[in-house]
Specification:
With 531 residues, the chain is an alpha/beta fold. It folds into 2 domains: 290 residues, 3-Layer(bba) Sandwich (FAD/NAD(P)-binding domain); 199 residues, no CATH class. The protein is 31% helix and 17% strand. It has 15 helices and 20 strands. The strands form 5 sheets. Strands 1, 2, 3, 4, 5, 6, 17 and 18 form an 8-stranded mixed beta sheet that branches. A 5-stranded parallel beta sheet has the order 7-16-8-9-12, with helices on one face. Strands 13-14-15 form a 3-stranded antiparallel beta sheet, with no helix packed on it. Helix 1 runs parallel beside helix 13. The radius of gyration is 23 Å and the shape is globular. The two termini are 33 Å apart.
Length: 531
């Protein structure tokens, strides 16, 4: 049973909730963790689809707070697969005795602030209520699955799956006629593996996505040992990288526009072989200048055309717009999959899916029959999980109403009108544009030190100042406007969810953000109001 009262509640048992709970316990607080799933892992608990894998390298997508942990854990691959990352999260929870602080299978459905005693009352779907002084939302940026409201969705009689809520026992598609709806990251990772099993596979694509080969491989022991021998140095250099990882790769500051065609092609080829996000390090202006970006985009399109044998299919798979203003994908054999005779690509950009029916779906005047449909339709990113919780701040103000025109935060950590409420990697922080584990550790340290300061100063409440929040929203927009990121209909802007406000949500510039928070802390938390 949940206790009736505690000092702090942490919602979410992913990497953020895990380290946040640990930090609050170190302060001597009575802390309770709540998690709607059955164990630790967060996104890696829910996303168990075939091929699910991290797109940040294993030796960097890991905690930094324990030198012993860094040395002990052995990562088997360059990019770790979901089972390995899940095992790591659960190992950390057990090794540092955090498990006993969490209550699993508890879905938070309400959080209401009481201004008379500056407390939050948190309610669960299971009918329990818990009152606390401090409430920290570690709910993740990609945790609210998005299923489009297709007509006839409930009429379909076959099996349906969402990549973000995959059955824990796995799925065997052997001999089945399968549809995958969507061609984002989860689809790009899962399609090659589903294709190996399925009797037939139809992929329904609205928008083609750029993807770079991950170049994944087993991680040699000598490579891991060399990194561990100087782990501290690598971590320190990563704090000064644009996205908090990739310090051992060269990022070139020069412009693609000043290179000769031969130099340009050779550089792109070299970074293509490196794989993944590192492709964007080939030149310094790829996400800043439309003309520079066009060269990188055309290079990737040329690779797709070289790979996919059918010219018509290849052209459909070639993205038409800016590269990297949507999240760049990393794949293993994705485009090669379309060379298989039983794999078909269906373009629904001009003629969208009309409806599902008992045996399949209809689009473009055609009826397709399937045994299973996989929705790889992504998430209501960054704000979805928070807005589904029924959070009510001072004076009855709901977070949903406050953010009706888009999220407004101070530093991506707090929002005015909601005292003693913190968000880990919330909108307005680097979050999805940086190494998420580094990001949650950074926020856990910042939030725990702020709570410690509050208690030492004798304050009972803290919240964002409205003027600071307004200034931060302006800063976010100004920084984004200097890049190409806002130029796409991406989930960075909420464009994948009908009716969601189009606002660019992440903060661009990890090192600057870190320095900003350090200065705010040194100045006794400017931009915050205390009482």
């Amino acid at each position: 049973m949940l206790p009736k009262r505690c000092d702090a509640v942490v919602v979410g048992a992913g990497f953020g909730g895990l380290i946040m709970t640990l930090r609050l316990r170190e302060l001597g607080l009575d802390v309770v963790g709540l998690e709607r799933g059955g164990d630790f892992g967060g996104t890696w608990y829910w996303n168990r689809y075939p091929g699910c894998r991290c797109d940040v390298e294993s030796m960097e997508y890991s905690y930094q707070f324990s030198k012993e942990l860094e040395q002990e854990w052995q990562w088997p691959e360059r990019y770790s697969a979901q089972p390995e990352i899940l095992a790591y999260a659960q190992h950390v929870a057990d090794r540092f005795d955090v498990r006993r602080l969490f209550h699993f299978n508890r879905e938070v459905v309400s959080a209401v602030f009481d201004s008379t005693d500056s407390t939050w009352t948190v309610g669960t779907r299971e009918g329990e209520a818990l009152t606390c002084s401090y409430l920290i939302m570690a709910t993740g940026c990609l945790s609210a699955a998005n299923i489009p409201a297709f007509a006839g969705l409930n009429d379909y009689k076959g099996r349906t799956y969402h990549t973000g809520a995959w059955p824990h026992g796995g799925v065997d598609f052997t001999g089945q006629r399968v549809a995958v709806i969507g061609t984002g990251s989860s689809a790009i990772q899962s399609i090659p593996i589903i294709a190996r099993q399925a009797k037939s596979l139809h992929v329904f694509q609205r928008t083609a996505n750029y993807s770079i080969p991950a170049q994944n491989a087993p991680l040699p022991e000598e490579t891991a040992a060399a990194i561990k021998a100087n782990y501290g140095e690598l971590r320190e250099r990563n704090w000064n990288q644009p996205a908090a990882f990739g310090a051992y790769y060269e990022r070139n500051p020069d412009s693609v526009l000043t290179a000769t065609p031969e130099e340009r092609k050779a550089r792109f080829e070299r970074y293509w072989v490196m794989g993944g996000f590192m492709f964007l390090g080939a030149f310094g202006d790829l996400v800043m200048n439309v003309d520079a970006n066009a060269h990188a985009a055309e290079f990737v399109r040329s690779k797709i055309r070289e790979t996919v044998k059918d010219p018509g299919t290849a052209e459909l798979l070639c993205p038409k717009g800016i590269i990297a203003c949507k999240r760049l994908c990393a794949d293993t054999g994705y485009f090669e999959t379309y060379n298989l005779p039983h794999v078909k690509l269906v373009d629904v950009s001009q003629k969208p899916i009309e409806r599902l029916n008992p045996t399949g779906l209809e689009t473009g005047g055609n009826h397709y029959e399937f045994d299973a449909i996989v929705f790889a339709t992504g998430f209501d990113a960054m704000t979805g999980a928070l807005l589904r919780m029924g959070i009510v701040g001072e004076g009855g103000l709901t977070l949903k109403d406050k953010w009706s025109a888009g999220p407004r935060t101070w530093l991506g950590v707090t929002t005015s009108g909601f005292p003693n409420l913190w968000m880990m990697t919330g909108p307005g922080s680097p979050s999805v544009l940086a190494n998420m584990i580094t990001g949650v550790e950074h926020h856990a340290d910042f939030i725990s030190r702020q709570i410690e300061w509050l208690r030492k100063q004798g304050h009972t409440r803290i919240e964002a100042d409205v003027a600071a929040e307004d200034q931060w929203v302006d800063t976010l927009n100004q920084r984004a406007s200097l890049t190409l990121y806002p130029h796409c209909n991406s989930w960075y802007l909420g464009a994948n969810v009908p009716g969601k406000p189009r606002v660019f949500m992440p903060y661009l510039g990890w090192p600057d953000y870190v320095q900003r928070l350090r200065q705010i802390e040194a100045d006794d938390y400017t931009g915050f109001k205390v009482a």
